[in-house]
Design brief:
This protein is mainly beta. The chain has one domain: Beta Barrel (Porin), CATH 2.40.160. It has five helices and 22 strands. The strands form three sheets. A 16-stranded antiparallel barrel has the order 4-6-7-8-9-10-11-12-13-14-15-16-17-20-21-22.
Length: 437
Amino acid sequence: MKQIALAVATLITCSGTYANEALDVLEGKKKASDLVLPATKNAVAEESGITYPNAVWPEWQTRTFDPVWARATLFHDDTNPWVQHLAVTGYFEWQSASGEAEIKKEGGSTLDTVDLDSSETRRARLGARMRAFRNTNIEAVGEIAGDDNQSGIERLSGRTELPKNFGVTYGKFRPQFSAEYRQEPEFSPYPDRAMLVNMIAPAATVGIHFDHRRGDWEYGIGWFSSDSDPYIPAIQGSGILAVNVARNFVETTGDTVTRTRWHLDYLHNYDVGESRSAPSYNVAGRRSSNGNQLVLANPAFLNLFSTGFTLEQDRFSFLGDFMLAKGDTTAWGLTLAPAVWAVPGYLKIVGRYHYAGSNDPGALVSTMGASSDPNFDSSPFFIGDDYHSFYLGANAHIYKDRLVLMTGFENVLLEDDAGEGFNTNATIWHTGVKASF
């Protein structure tokens, strides 16, 4: 706990991707009324040369909660040559799952039923962010929920803006990989990331990443350590090479603004089979909940690919992502995730279909319950080679994206045809709450 407090005290934090107009209100830099704009083609803001639709929230939300959330800002002065912004950050997420998983052989009767009822404080984070020297965003986030694998320093990084649209990020942070993993969990409309994302994406670790923006295009290249210490990882092994390319499209048709972002991510793991950050978990020597099958070796991936797009248009948004992981075993998957505002600014209906497959026995590792992250091992885990997940839920936004009540139903089908044939059919009802500042 001392190490967490020390990390927070360093005040190393970064406003990063989510420093949008809604956050400006929280930090007291703009009035709430500035965001209540008509949805016209002129209602756009510019950030790094790319246009985004304005966030429009109900007036009662901004009137009631803006003064409370603005207290997170401790200091703001654009004229100060040393420190322009200083704020505390926090994130709390509680999840509950109610359901069961039926285990049966192909064409046979139910052999076993696994209870998936669970509730967890999934994340509890406290940190700070700072803008310094007019070109550097610094961030520190401590995680105080979960067991030893979860608690520690979640992030300790800085990003310095260089001339001619170049930038460099350094410290402990997550590699950029896939649309969902790139998204901060407090802004995800789902109980957790898709199964394959949690299974193949590397853990946050020490690294350095250079980026460049040229018009609508974004380019990045970085290196990350193979260590995954919950506090400060060591610079260990040959590491992970990360290459990223993305393009942003903004189209205005009448009163409708459509924003689309395409991405291509590639990670090469030089320490395949030995890296502790890729993958972020280790199930070798453990037995699965479907058939009590012994896992002899942890999945080991040499090359990771992800390509897809996100789209935002008026009340509607969509995420599509394809992933491929190749190494000692091979796995691939697809995520299709639409969302629509049923009541703009308050009630959002979200859906997600996720598929993953492999030709290798037991290649897919999935936990079910309050988490689909095998690194967060409070839930039973299952293995197989063909995975389908269908999720439909509703999110009540009490205050913007900062205080959200979530509920939804999920059906998971995990086949074990290449293994011993212990297939899984799970039905889960999810509820939860997310609060962040």
